[in-house]
Amino acid sequence: MKLAKNLEGKIREVYERVRYMLATSGETVISQVSLRQFFSGNRDVDLLLSDVSYVDPFYGLHYRGLSLEQVLQQLPKPQGSVFPYAGGLYSLLLTGEMPGEEEALEVEDLWKDRAAIPQHVINVLKAMPAETHPMTMFSQAILALQTQSQFTRDYSNGLSKEDYWKITLEDSLDLTAKAPGLAATIYNIKYGDGTLREIDSHLDWSANFAHLIYKDWDQHYQDLCRLFFVLHADQGTGNVSAHTACLVNSALSDVYYSCSAAMNGLAGPLHGRANQDCLQWLLGIMENFDGSLPTMSQLEQYVWDTLERGKVIPGYGHAVLRCTDPRFAAQLEFGKQYMADDQLFNLVEMVYQVVPDILKKQGKAKGIWPNVDAISGTLQYHCGVKEFDFYTVLFGVGRMLGITVNLVWNRALALPLERPQSITLQMVQDRLHDTLNISGLRSDSYL
Ligand SMILES: CC(C)(COP(=O)(O)OP(=O)(O)OC[C@H]1O[C@@H](n2cnc3c(N)ncnc32)[C@H](O)[C@@H]1OP(=O)(O)O)[C@@H](O)C(=O)NCCC(=O)NCCS
Hints:
By secondary structure, this protein is mainly alpha-helical. It has 2 domains: 1-30 and 41-268 and 391-447, Citrate Synthase, domain 1 (Orthogonal Bundle); 274-382, CATH 1.10.230.10. Helices cover 57% and strands 2% of the residues. It contains 20 helices and 3 strands. The chain has helices spanning 2-25, 35-38, 68-74, 86-95, 101-113, 119-127, 134-144, 150-156, 164-191, 205-212, 219-231, 240-249, 255-266, 274-288, 296-308, 326-338, 343-362, 376-382, 391-412, 425-431; strands at residues 53-56, 60-63, 66-67. The protein has a 3-stranded antiparallel sheet with strand order 1-2-3. Helix 7 packs across helix 9, helix 8 packs across helix 9 and helix 9 packs antiparallel against helix 19. The longest helix has 28 residues, at 164-191. Residues 270, 274, 307, 312-319, 364-367, 371-373 line the site of coenzyme A.
């Protein structure tokens, strides 16, 4: 595999760089945590390493140092499409080099060879109760695939440490190859009559999802899939899903265990489920105004009502971003081009005009701008994928691209078991020296 050979040289260079830094400056403090950060989910504490992507608070997501705009522009594209091959993105994320068509197609071909879904996974999905949430099905399907893990098999047979990353790459390619098929299997079982299709070898990985859910006739939807999966691929490793995967994998649990766990985190409403919730909220607005668009002032009142009921505005705010998410902006462009007259899309544009100001006035949220989830469901809905509890699965398909690349690199750099220390409240108090004297907290009561 050319990809692995190319990667090997890069890994050696980065590995040496890390060892050199550790040998020369191992005790240098590079990050600190305040009491506030300690009690706020470690926001903005530099704790994790990933060269794969970085989220700049004011410029948003960068893949391997490139803005999304550059990535979308420079990645190779299938003939007749202005949206890139996911295989090219995978090569970029892994190696840090912008791939040519040959490199993109190498990954696409590796995926085609590995795309078949084993029958036992289909049986597991078919056995689940009809009311099961698609994210539960997705997580279970990935776990059921764990029987195929080459890492777990080879580890039991004495796999050497230097080869961990190579076998993690094999598992990563195997799992990502199957991701669109797993999602489509869930879709067809849950919303259709359960009839499943083989992949179309003429189509790329992203467009194959459209084919597998019987929407291959729709060029726009194929393009939306290409855009959607590239936009959702990675977002640093501090977010809940990626961090979960890295944590689980640090115990040398394989890619399947790690990604299944990641999907359980993605399923939460403060993370990936926000796309489902956002569409539901938008449809609620339309319903409230008898299927028509509200006026601006009616919309403002609706937003305030939502906040006053103690709810968040789904798709707005972010733990890191302090600007409009470029993933939102890229989808907004898509919408302007392909569905400018769609009422729901027009509502997304109106919401974008009113919500940031209202959140600013309310004064609670640190991030007031739209994130990726503020629009992704609307584009899917327009293209006929109306089952909105399914949208987080699509997020997960894309997200596994970045997660699995990070897992390969974590094993390549021999990052150890993650094990931060937890301390008692009394210990926290003691570290504040004598500045606090909280009655009722005795030093022996928490030990
Ligand atoms: C993404 C999110 C979880 C970030 O959380 P965070 O880093 O804790 O955000 P903040 O520090 O800005 O939160 C401070 C306060 O503002 C509130 N807030 C943040 N975003 C808000 C929003 N979109 N609508 C209303 N209130 C919001 C928080 O709930 C919190 O309130 P609290 O003090 O009563 O608990 C949060 O912005 C959110 O819930 N957004 C809506 C869900 C969403 O879109 N998730 C997808 C993220 S990609």
